[in-house]
Amino acid sequence: MVSRSQKAAIAMKNWLTGSHEEDEVRDDTLAVMDEVMDDRVNIWTQLPEHIVRKISIRLPVPKLLQLRAVCKQWKQLIDSPDFPRLRSEIPSSDGTNFLLLQMNCSFLNTADDWTTLDDAEFAVHSLNIHDLCLYNPFLHNWYKLPPSILTQKEIFCRSYHRGVWSIQILSKKRKWLDDDELRILVHHPTSGWKREIPNTFGPKLRTLLSLVVDNETNNFKLITTGCAETECSCTPASCVHTQVYDSVSHRWTTAGNLPTSVLLFKTNGRSNVMHIVIGHQVYYMISRISRAFRPSIEPPDDQSRHTWTFLSFNLHNYCWTVIDGKMPFTDVMHFRTVAFERNEAIVVAQLTSTSSYDWRSSLGWKLRVYTWDRRRHHNVLTWREVPVCPPPEDERLPKLFYRQRSHRFAGSWAGQGDFIIFVSGSCWGHRALLYNITSKAWTVTDFGPRMTKQPLLFITLPFDLTLGMCPTGQGY
Q1: Exposed, middle or buried by CB within 10 Å (0-12, 13-18, 19+), for 364?
Q2: Which of these, 432, 435, 427, lies nearest to 386 by C-alpha position?
Q3: Contacts of 231 (CB under 8 A, 6+ apart)
Q4: Distances in whole angstroms, Cα of residue 7 to Cα of each of 24, 46, 71, 73, 80
Q5: Between residues 32 and 371, which one has the greater pLDDT?
Q6: DSSP state of 308
Q7: How far apart are CA 191 and CA 408, in angstroms?
Q8: Which of 188, 199, 148 is nearest to 165 (CA)?
Q9: Which SMART domains match (predicted)?
Q10: What is the Cα–Cα distance from 276 to 286, expressed in whole angstroms?
């Protein structure tokens, strides 16, 4: 039989060299490999622990998550309190990552609810979290993460930030619109850490729920808006309450009300929200659309015009502020717009109709990128357009863009930092298209063979990959 140290050595060799062998090597396979084990593998079994530590602190987090599952000795090494400190002293190649999720079923009808753009896609009966794929655009590598299974019940991912999910679980004993049996969990999928949030204020399914995780302490806050009181006197058109849950105090606190002059809840229309966290400010970009509008490739008519509002919420004084100024566009459908942070500025990207052959023969729409430098113009929206190059001619692109011509982008896309990623299971299978805002370079990448002929539904999330999630208990 192969010893535990030899198993660890084989695993280290495979992961350092980028081998795509199975994550769990069976004993019979190991017995065969033992006979042909080369000198390089034997060296790993003889390395002192401090040498292994120096090597491991330079590995990307996905590699460390895999190595941690090899043996107890390596798990103790990676989980030790000194390990994060040692990693912080060397340059990191983790940076921006994108988590890829494969959905199991169709969307739910949430037309009456406040939902974020991503929540509309997350409102599914069953979220497949058995297979977690993660892409590092700096290293141009895909990684398969250990599975993160929470529950067999119906779950809704309501918000996410820095690699942490805020999930609502529905009891099968009651109807899904009944709020009494709702549970809220904050979950870190890569480590398995989770915490159930008390529902003293009774956060409802039909409210806006935003998760904010502190970059240094891992303490987190949940912001919920809407009508969360059983005997609320407000009307359905003006549910303005705001509460904040603090992981340090473990309590919900009443915050400033939403400005009713610009926002109405549950009127004749639907609100879609994107939130961007920068420091102690949470920015909300809200799109409102008439309920009569049906998404299609035609532009909306006069009776279904989009209205956009920009708000900020201060995590220090718990107050809302309306940001003056206009968006760089007006009648743009929410599924063709994404917002994210880049160098402490806010970036808004949109897909617009165009007559340019370079774009119509590729994505079918033209990608436009705008940025707002909040440090220079913090009280008013001042947008600057960033030039974008169309995808180049590439032998892989004709297949990638098959069936995309003259249609809205039939897939999911997301952005963070310098990168925007596009995936389309129905048209591209297990392929993704990446755009670098700074270098203006397009990259086609494969994240696995297509295993089924059925159309696949993929969702991409910006993801800060960390080894663990343990709030320090020291506030913001």
Answers
A1: buried
A2: 435
A3: none
A4: 10, 13, 8, 12, 21
A5: 371
A6: E
A7: 37
A8: 188
A9: FBOX
A10: 12
Q: Which amino acid is at 402?
A: Y
Tokens read off for 323: 């940001």
Rounded CA separation 211/275 (Å): 9
Q: Are 61 and 466 in contact (CB under 8 A)?
A: yes
**Residue-level pLDDT at 340:** 92
Domain ranges in the chain? 4-88, 97-463
**In the structure encoding, which two tokens stand for residue 465, read together?**
């990959």
- Per-residue tokens: 128: 């497949």
Coil, strand or helix at 118: helix
User: 54 pLDDT band (50/70/90 cuts)?
Assistant: confident
Angle at 181 between CA 178 and CA 186, to 5 degrees: 115
User: Whose CA is closest to 118, among 157, 164, 151?
Assistant: 157
pLDDT above 90 (res 193) = no
pLDDT score of 454: 57
Handedness of CA 41, 46, 47, 50 (dihedral sign): positive
* DSSP characters over 147-171: P----SSEEEEEEEETTEEEEEEE-
Residue found by looking up tokens 């966290």 in the block: 277
Single-letter amino acid, residue 26: R
What is the distance between the alpha carbons of residues 80 and 430, in angstroms, rounded to a whole number?
37
Between residues 211 and 72, the one the model is more confident about: 211
Q: What distance in Å separates the CA atoms of residue 62 and residue 191, rounded to the nearest whole number?
A: 11
Antiparallel, parallel or unpaired: β 115-116 and 270-278 = parallel
Asked if residue 135 lies in contact with residue 98, where contact means CB atoms within 8 angstroms, the answer is yes
Tell me the one-letter amino acid at 469.
M
CATH number of the domain at 97-463, please?
2.120.10.80
CA–CA dist 324, 378 (Å, integer): 10
Instruction: Grade residue 296 by pLDDT with cuts at 50, 70 and 90.
Output: very low
Token representation of residue 372: 């707002």
Q: Two tokens at 384?
A: 């600057």
Share above pLDDT 90 across residues of the chain, in percent, rounded to a whole number: 12
